[in-house]
Structures are given as C-alpha cells and as structure tokens.
Amino acid sequence: MVIAQTLQSLNPEDARSVLYYIARYIKQAESFSNYEKDIFEDEQHNAPSGLVRKTTIRLIEEIEAREGMRAQQFNGETVIRLLDEITSLETSLSAELSEAELERGASLAEAMVPPTHLPSDDQPLAKSRQSS
Questions:
Q1: Alpha-carbon distances, residue 130 vs 28, 65, 113, 114, 127 (angstroms)
Q2: Which of 66, 71, 87, 93 is most buried, by the most CB atoms less than 10 A from its CB?
Q3: In this predicted model, what pLDDT tens digit does every residue of 17-61 receive, in sequence order?
Q4: CB atoms within 10 A of CB 59
Q5: What DSSP state is assigned to residue 111?
Q6: Closest alpha carbon to 13 in 117, 84, 98
Q7: What is the pTM of this model?
Q8: What's the start-to-end Cα distance of the chain, in Å?
Q9: Helix intervals (H) in the chain
C-alpha cells in the first residue's frame, strides 16, 4: 500500500497530520464544488508544513487514481471504506510523542491558570459555579 509506505518515511506527528487532512478531504469532497474550501484551512489546527501539504496532495491523487475517480464522486460505501483504512493506518503509528509535541504540551501546561475556587466534597461543581 503506497499510503502506508509513504507514512513510514514521516515522523508520527507529520503522518498523523497527513492522515487528518486526507480524511478531511474525503469527508468534505462532495461540497468542494459549492464552497471551494481549502482542506488546509482549519481553525482547530495550525497551518501544515510544506512537507505535510505536499504529501497529503500526493496521497489524495494516489487514492483517486486507485479508485479511478475524483473524491467528489465517491459513494458512501467508498468513503466509509477509505476512512476505515485511514483509521487503521493512524492506529498503527507510534504512540511515542515527538519532541515538538512534548514541548507544545509543556507550553500549554505552563500557560494554564489554576482555579481560584474548588467546590467542597459535598458541593456539586454546578452549584459552586452558580455561587461564584
């Protein structure tokens, strides 16, 4: 499988990103002609690196060539099969965090502000929020 071979040459973080954008493309392909949305524009994720972008586009082209049609033409069964394949590939990636992921996590943890008031054991969280 070309996708699996290509992912092996990437670090796990980039491989996950590539799979994320491929899945996003497959799920949203039907609406691209109406909205002209760029799969790489995402409020939830930072813009991908050039390597991730290039690899994603190449693998989308490979998938479409293998299926013999553009993603906009995939039927529901094909979409589900491809998303299952992507999920399987994602679960096969190393669970080890990259240095960048560890640094990002540490940075987020440092930026967290501890709560100023914690509910007592006999006071439910919802009530403590109302009384604050």
A1: 40, 57, 20, 19, 5
A2: 71
A3: 999 999 999 988 877 666 667 778 776 667 888 999 999 999 999
A4: 20
A5: H
A6: 98
A7: 0.68
A8: 56
A9: 2-8, 12-35, 50-67, 76-91, 99-111, 125-131
Residue 73, both tokens? 């033409």
User: For residue 5, what are the CA distances in angstroms to 20, 59, 95?
Assistant: 17, 11, 18
Q: Over the stretch 56-74, which tens digit does the pLDDT of each residue have?
A: 999 999 999 999 999 989 9
Enter the tokens of residue 23.
């899945």
Give the orientation angle of helix 76-91 with respect to helix 12-35, to 10 degrees. Answer: 160
Go through the chain and tell me how many residues it has.
132
Collapsed DSSP state (helix, strand, coil) of residue 72 = helix
